[in-house]
Write a structure and sequence with these properties.
Order of helices and strands: EHEEEEHEEE
CATH class: Alpha Beta
Number of domains: 1
Shape: globular
Helix content: 10-25%
CATH topology: 2,3-Dihydroxybiphenyl 1,2-Dioxygenase, domain 1
Largest sheet: 4 strands, mixed
Number of strands: 8
Strand order of the largest sheet: 1-4-3-2
Number of helices: 2
Structural class: alpha/beta
Radius of gyration: 15 Å
CATH superfamily: 2,3-Dihydroxybiphenyl 1,2-Dioxygenase, domain 1
Length: 127
């Protein structure tokens, strides 16, 4: 069976601040995608690195006037080798640690953080 989730979007209010946060915490490069200049669909978009044939899903940071960031929506978990690595970068990047590393038994470990836009995201690892 294939994974049901194949894409995610994390909404931002300050696009450049959010890009800096995710770049610093996950040590990855986001790729800006050109968007239509249509005045009715002003949008900023930057994709996370991904492998179309690999395990899991990829996604993007998005700034669009019609959708606001914040807690209470869908929770996306980012894969991690060791959660404490990313947790150690969160506050310096402007975010908050909501739940430190937590053992969830045979399913590994999770942690929860809040990004600079008010979105809660999860971290998951097997170590």
């Amino acid at each position: 069976m294939r994974n049901m989730i194949n894409w995610f979007e994390i909404y931002t209010s300050d696009f450049n601040r959010a890009k800096k946060f995710y770049t610093e915490v996950f040590k990855c490069k986001l790729t800006d995608l050109p968007m239509s200049s249509d005045r009715h669909s002003q949008m900023e978009y930057a994709t996370f690195p991904g492998d179309e044939k690999g395990f899991g899903a990829s996604g993007a940071l998005v700034k669009i006037d019609q959708v606001k960031p914040g807690n209470g929506g869908i929770l996306v978990y980012f894969a991690s080798e060791e959660i404490n690595t990313e947790l150690g970068r969160v506050e310096a990047a402007g975010g908050k640690i909501i739940r430190p590393k937590l053992d969830i038994g045979e399913f590994g470990f999770i942690g929860l953080i809040e990004d600079t836009e008010g979105n809660m995201i999860g971290l998951h690892s097997m170590k």
